[in-house]
Amino acid sequence: RVDLSDDEHCSKYAVLHLKRGILSTVCSLYNPLGFAAPVTLAARSLIQDLWKAKVNWDEPLDDHFLGRWRS
Fold first, then answer.
1. Distance between alpha carbon 7 and the CA centroid of its chain, in Å?
2. Where are the beta strands (DSSP E) in 1-71?
């Protein structure tokens, strides 16, 4: 479990590698015309797989999920 109150782990980089950060990033995309659908679809699929794997909100992601997020 990552302690988000610690200054070292409170950086935006550290939060982006948590389920919480990925969900926040994907939900912040505004795409009313659907031009970014290929990108958002892959990200939403990743979020769905994180829920299926029962990853906790503040649990660091496995390399498998991080690789998918970075690609």
1. 20
2. none
Q: Which residues of the chain have pLDDT under 50?
A: 9
Closest C-alpha among 6, 11, 16, 24 to residue 66: 16
Q: What is the pTM of this model?
A: 0.74
The pLDDT value given to residue 29 = 86
DSSP three-state, residue 32: coil
- What per-residue confidence (pLDDT) applies to 62? 92
Structure-block tokens of residue 59: 């649990």
CA-atom Rg of the chain in angstroms? 13
Tally of CB atoms within 10 A around 43? 18
